[in-house]
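Researcher: Structure prediction, please.
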Amino acid sequence: MEPERRAFLDRLLETPSPSGFETRGQRVWIDYVDSFADEVWTDDYGNAVAAYEGGGTELALTGHADEVGFIVRRIDDDGFVRIGAIGGADRTVSKGQHVTIHADDPVSGVVGQTAIHLRDSGEESYDDIGEQYVDVGATDREEAASLVSVGDPVTFSTTVEDLHGSRVAARGMDNRIGVWAAAEGLRRAVETGVDATVYAVSTIQEEVGLQGARMVGFDLAPDAAVAVDVTHATDSPGIPGKRQGPVELGGGPVVSRGSANHPKLVEMARAAAEDAEVDVQLQASGSRTGTDADAFYTSGGGIPALNLGLPNRYMHTPVEVIDETDLRDLAALLGRLADRAGGVDSFAVDV
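Model: Predicted structure follows.
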């Protein structure tokens, strides 16, 4: 990956952006796309849109800016900070982790975990997030309350780590890779001067119900929308048999078929992958994609939508792992998809 593109990805991954508190991450994204987009704007909740005015068909390339995390619920008498979940936070990986509470000034803390020597053997269990707490070093409620407030968001303190080869680990791959790819797809569309109007969109609050996509789908109403998100790589140990599937890290971007995924967009994506000489993997989506595509395709009178996935190991943990080559190929696919959109007169299916 080119150094400038990787630096943009790292900035996105290093900037906390839990659902409902996405503004810092959105600023990083806006500053990047502003250098090549014809126009950039945000709505009242912070959804961000960058546009290339190429005329003709309007295609939105989208990712969601938010990540899972925690929120301060209360402070107890002993100064421990009680937390709740933001989105699908995983209660099995949170204890014993370094976290940052994003108060007026960042506050470092750790999620408490009773030492193995003091726990009753044979009675291991995972506390719900609401039963867990953050230790910020305070000795009582008053001292802790001088540092943090109810409603402050909390994220893991892990950052970006390069693993062997082209593998990269970080929290928040879900879904910094999506907003990165949307921006890169737009940049490629601008460079090649495609005959379509292309929007790159960074939505908010996907992890708590696809809320930003609902707003954008209604307001922007493009002819078609491609929701880029992570999808489960099922090639690591511990995947239950019934969950095992064909998605492998390094095998290329994933094209979903079924449910929200419009058949013409599926066909376009597969053809665009051939244009870009990119291998893709296929994934069945029998009922729902679980991504912003589900919100786009039911907005207004229905927006033709497609979910493009990037294989991701250990989703919703502090150590999500992707393959950088998959991400690079995803950006190339989106650029070619934008080019193909210029030749589309209608997305209506033949009946």
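Model: Residues 3-67+171-341 form a domain with the Aminopeptidase fold (CATH 3.40.630.10).
Researcher: Thanks, that helps.
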